[in-house]
Design brief:
single chain; 7-stranded mixed sheet; 3-stranded antiparallel sheet; globular
Length: about 130
C-alpha cells in the first residue's frame, strides 16, 4: 500500500489517502465531471483522512442530494467528494494528488451520462 497527500489549489484543503500501488482512475462524462475535469480515484472511507480545511469546504448537492461535492470556498477546487455511487468512500481527484507515484494507473472511461445503468460498476472500489 502507498500513502499520498494532496489538496486544493490554494492549499487550504489537504488530505491523505492510502491506495494499492496499482489503481484504476475513472474519466466520467457526466455534466459536472466534464465541466470541472474531475478524474476519479475512489478509496474506502477508512483510507481517506482530511488533514486540514474542513472549515473551508462548501458542500454542493444536486439531483438526489446523495453525493456531497466538496469545494474549497477560497480557490473553488473540488479535490475530493463523497460520491453517490460509493457513499461509504471518497472520490479523490487524481489531478489533486501531490506527485502521484503509482506502479500502474489504469485509466477507465465511465459513462456517467447514463449513470443509473452504470453506477454498479463502481461500488467495489470503496470496499476495504
Amino acid at each position: 500500500m502507498l500513502t499520498h497527500e494532496g489538496g486544493c489549489h490554494c492549499g487550504a484543503v489537504r488530505f491523505r489517502i492510502t491506495t494499492p500501488a496499482r489503481v484504476a482512475v475513472q474519466r466520467c462524462n457526466c455534466s459536472i465531471c466534464l465541466r470541472c475535469g474531475f478524474s476519479h480515484l475512489i478509496v474506502p472511507g477508512s483510507r481517506f483522512e482530511l488533514l486540514q480545511g474542513k472549515q473551508t469546504l462548501t458542500d454542493y448537492q444536486f439531483n438526489t442530494s446523495t453525493a456531497h461535492h466538496l469545494f474549497c470556498n477560497r480557490c473553488g477546487i473540488k479535490s475530493f467528494y463523497v460520491p453517490r455511487s460509493n457513499p461509504d468512500g471518497y472520490s479523490v481527484n487524481f489531478h489533486c494528488i501531490d506527485n502521484p507515484a503509482f506502479d500502474q494507473v489504469d485509466w477507465e472511461d465511465f459513462d456517467g451520462q447514463n449513470w443509473e445503468d452504470n453506477a454498479g460498476r463502481l461500488q467495489h472500489l470503496s470496499e476495504p
